[in-house]
Design goal:
Rossmann fold; 2 domains; eight-stranded mixed beta sheet; six-stranded antiparallel beta sheet; 27 strands
Length: 501
Amino acid sequence: MSGPGTDTRNDAGMDGVRLDAIFRRNAARRPDALALIDPPNREAFTDGAPRKLTYADAERAVARLALMLRRLGLPPRAVVALQLPNTVEAVIALLAVLRAGFVAAPLPLLWRRAEGAVAMTQVSARALITCGRIGETDHGAIALQIAADTFSVRYVCGFGTASDGVVPLDDIFSQADEESEDAENSSSQDAAIAVVTFDTATGSAAARGHTALLVGGLTTVLEADLSRNARIINTMLPSSFATLATAVVPWILTGGTLALHHPFDPAALAEQIREGADAVVVPAPLVAQFGSPFDAARLIAIWRDPQRCAQDAPSPHGAALVDVLAFGEAGIIAARRSEDGRPARFASGPRYAPHGASDAPMVLQITRTARGTLALSGPMLPVPLPETGVDPTENAGPQDTGYPCHIDPANGALTITGTPAGVVNVGGYCFVMSALHETMARVDAGSMLAALPDPLAGQKLAGAVGDPAAMRHALAVLGVNPLIANAFRDPRREPLDMPVA
């Protein structure tokens, strides 16, 4: 077993391993096995019929898209942003960006022009991959707006969109095989950064290399005891480190099948579970709400409000439930529940995966700061962007998550007791209340906005203003997250109809 002073980047044995290389080996090993499955209700929320891709199909699509991206003439290690629903295109695009030697930067799906342009500018993104319709929203148009506000962006590419100025990508699933470049030449480029994700509260970028992503995924695989060729159902949008580490990377590591579910249709999810699942990745508040269909598989429950986990009632799923505490984009702590269904306790110090096992790799170091907040360090933590002048191959020291915590002097158990000061969490999207109040004041100085508790979303925004319709229109023009505009909607007359994850 590794000790507290060990270089944890080597503990998991992942140095020098690349996600795309593992995926290619899976494709060579199981070309005819199902790799990716679309949501069965895909046509209800976006364009195109549901797809089922074998590993051979997926490998061809990744190779074709990687070739298309390289032919755009982007510089080596360019940042390519992704804003896609939970469909096979999202996974194919992520792998293709890595195959092409670029850096993938998935954007939260509900980000609009304001948040999107700030994020793209921060990482000097050169291209944006999107799609057409998601619900009633034209994401091709949104992508063009974001690109217009971002000096560095040269191309907007899209699936299922006919918008002028968007490079079409749908041919990667249908065109005949053509001569392709050597995939190894591009995917073996020395890139310290593989993926950049964004904190939805601050908009700050969290950059990670392949090792950090693989250690996060390995944590989930070991804690959930996922077997080779596992069938995983993912109900979370692939735009955060938590989702990549609990669904996409475990799928790559196990070489199994990833079935995608776009949040949230209970009937569609029940149908997917009936078709078979070894694990289902879900937002933690839905475990108790959804009921018996979850009994068919191990549950990997993501807590966007990690302080709620310790107070959760014992689960009838017992040890078949794995809690994943997500601390923004800083990192995750995964812990299988005890046989009686109670959340596992964890302490400060080194964290091994699976916890309590002998000879387990150390994946995380947990400490409590002098100001009483949780700090994380270790191989899964983000690294500085190259533009900062800091060597991005080196993990930074302990990173303060801002979450207040308490250590029980009797048993050393560490408990998260709240959220970072001034931050509210609405269905996985975090907001700084002071920033929201500034935005409201720009539109209408007489408006009011509050955060109220919500059993599913954690919190919800509720606003009051003289003319709600005018306020919603003004916020839409500003291009802010629609969750903010919908705070001024009467839910009895105008129900919210958009994905939240």
